[in-house]
Design brief:
5-stranded antiparallel beta sheet; 5-stranded mixed beta sheet; globular; mainly beta; about 170 residues; Jelly Rolls
Length: about 170
C-alpha cells in the first residue's frame, strides 16, 4: 500500500503523476471544494517513470490512498460526491471515499469503469455520516478526504475522477 498526499499542492488542473492538485477550501463561506485525480497514464501491470521532482504513483495497486482535499479545523462537511470524468479501462477499478483513518466512509466501492458523467453522492445519515444528527460530519481538528483504491483488476488505463465536498467553516 502506498499513500500519495496531494493536499498541500495547489498548482495545476488535475492530480496526476506530473501535475498535482487544484481546488481549495474557502475559509469564510460555505463552498464546494473539489479536486480532479487523473490516473489515465497508469495501469496495473507496468511501472511508469516520473519526471525529476514529481511525486505520485507509478502503477495502480489495490489499497493505494490518494489524499486529495485538506479539511481545515472547525469545518462541517455536509456532502461528498465523486464523478467519473474518464472511465478506467479494465475488468474492475473501485474507490472508497473517506476521511483520515477511514473514520467516516462517505462512499464505498465507487465503480470507476462506469460511463463518463456517472456521479455518486454521499447520503446524509448513511456511510458513517452522523446518523443521529443527519447533517454531515463536523471536524474540530484538521483532517482530509481521500480516495482508496479498493479493487484493481486487469486495468490497462486508470480512471480520471473528480471529487467534491460541500462544507461550511465555523471558525
Amino acid at each position: 500500500m502506498s499513500t500519495f498526499d496531494f493536499t498541500g499542492l495547489n498548482t495545476a488542473d488535475v492530480v496526476n503523476p506530473t501535475e498535482p492538485l487544484q481546488g481549495s477550501w474557502l475559509h469564510k463561506y460555505s463552498c464546494v471544494a473539489y479536486a480532479t485525480l487523473d490516473l489515465t497514464a497508469l495501469n496495473s501491470t507496468t511501472n511508469i517513470t516520473l519526471g525529476t521532482g514529481t511525486v505520485g504513483p507509478t502503477i495502480l495497486n489495490t489499497t493505494d490512498i490518494y489524499k486529495l482535499l485538506a479539511i481545515p479545523a472547525d469545518t462541517l462537511v455536509q456532502v461528498v460526491a465523486i464523478a467519473v470524468v474518464t472511465p478506467a479501462v479494465g475488468t474492475a477499478f473501485t474507490f472508497s471515499v473517506y476521511d483520515s483513518g477511514g473514520t467516516n466512509t462517505f462512499i464505498s466501492a465507487f465503480d470507476c469503469t462506469q460511463a463518463a458523467g456517472t456521479t455518486t453522492l454521499s447520503v446524509l445519515g448513511t456511510g458513517g455520516i452522523l446518523v443521529a444528527v443527519n447533517s454531515g460530519v463536523f471536524y474540530s481538528s484538521a483532517n482530509y478526504i481521500a480516495l482508496k483504491a479498493a479493487t484493481v483488476t486487469s486495468v490497462t488505463a486508470g480512471p480520471k475522477v473528480k471529487i467534491f465536498a460541500l462544507n461550511s467553516p465555523f471558525a
